[in-house]
Amino acid sequence: MLTGFKKERLIMEDKIAVELKGVSKKYTLHHEKPTLVENIFTARSTEEFWALKRINLEIKRGEKVGIIGPNGSGKTTLLEVISGITTPTRGSVITNGKKVSLIELEAGFHAELTGQENIYLNGLLIGMSKKEINSKIKKIISFADVRQFIDAPFYAYSEGMKLRLGFSIVAHTNPDIVILDENMAVGDTSFKVKSHEIILDWIKKRKTIIVVSHLLDFISETCDKVVWLEEGKIFDQGKTKTIIKKYLHKYYNRRGHE
Amino acid sequence: MREASTIRERLKYYSDFLWGMTEKEIKARYKRAVFGFLWILLNPLMQMIIIGAIFSYFIKVPNYFLFLFVGLLAWQFFSLSLTKVTPSIVYERNLLVKAKFPIEAIPISIILSNFLHMIISYIIFLPILFFTVKLTMASLLLTITALIWLLLLTIGLGLLTASLNVRYRDVNFFIQTTIILWFYATPILYDSTIVSEKLFPFFALNPLTSIFEILHYSLLNQGRIDIKILAANLSLSLIIIMLGVLIFRKMHKFFVDWL
């Protein structure tokens, strides 16, 4: 294990992309939405639920990490914590570099605004500067193949067009850390190929990639390392092949199908 | 390395972002509205005519229609902003669960877009005033001060109600009710001189009082600015603003969990 001092240097030298230290996330389950009056007159009936329990995780720059686990094991929460969308109840998350997550696809898209206006809005929301958007907008539009509709309001767009534009914006952010989930294959077949190419390009360019998915094939193909979550804890982690084998053994072989 | 962007770059991004959101507010509001921006003037204008026609029988204030209009423009900014901002964070749920961004931009952009509208309305309104009262540089500066005070108070209060509304959805209903009462408790239909001396001290509790009285005073040379009330209003405003900022800062990290 590295000493604290060495670790600090690694972060400074940009070697560590993501570091989670003792991250826990508590959700309070409310069986009904609270109102002020209820809160005053009735005892609270709440239940605590720990979606993540003391997660320690270190992802180095350029590493490709898959996160697997059954439903409800905390995969999505972990992804949200790394993306910064939710704040952990305890522990700390340090990320080093510009990150983009496919959760952010279509964030802030507004039905009444035009395609162009939506590019600016979504771009700003996912952390691009206005200058950056100005310089990339042509590429974004042509990649998404929506040039004809770019001045039309968004309600005229098909779902496929919105997805394509959303993906195209994310693809042009030039991230250091990419967070992928089930969303990653979008659009029709030809666009799927294009978006897959972008993802492959990220992989080739030694971006740090975190994949949260049930798509074990994709994870085996791309990841160097797999983290296996079980009930909010890291159950096991290590080389992709070994972990996936164990995982398959536990969840699929026993039932003898799938 | 890239994280270590300079403070200037971050400020630039922040202002671009805030402006982008404000622009969206303005653009989205008038899509497919034929009268577009005119509504922001038509609305208080119609209110002025209706209220003026009725209340001029009961309330004796010189230049009553102009007097009403000065107040209604600012009131429209305040009430529209507050009613729209209070549920805004809850309404933008889809955005909050998708991206990490400075959340305060949601309420502040709504307020800023309304503020711009109000400023433009006042500017359009100014030429009419030139015929009736003598406007000086000092009175314009006083007007601007009052409007900035109103802006900051609205932002502080908006941050407070929007934050609390994430946890207690009652806040939205509370604001809807309060705003109606607040309208009558603020010198908009009347100036505070016509209120009995017994009730007058209660204006200390309404931070909007002095703002509206300053507007009446600076633009129309009417109304009554009482130093004690002014001091009370000013300190209450500061408390509300600080409370709003503090509560927002404390709660915003966990908004997503409550939505």
Automatic annotation (TrEMBL), chain B:
Compartments where located: Cell inner membrane; Cell membrane
A GO BP annotation: lipopolysaccharide transport
Transmembrane segments: 34-58, 64-85, 106-131, 137-159, 171-190, 227-248
Pfam families: ABC2_membrane
GO MF term set: ABC-type transporter activity
Domain ABC transmembrane type-2: 35-251
Membrane topology: Multi-pass membrane protein
Superkingdom to which the source organism belongs: Bacteria
UniProt keyword terms in alphabetical order: Cell inner membrane, Cell membrane, Membrane, Transmembrane, Transmembrane helix, Transport
GO cellular component: ATP-binding cassette (ABC) transporter complex
Family according to the record: Belongs to the ABC-2 integral membrane protein family.
Protein name listed in UniProt: Transport permease protein
Protein's organism: Candidatus Woesebacteria bacterium RIFCSPHIGHO2_02_FULL_39_13
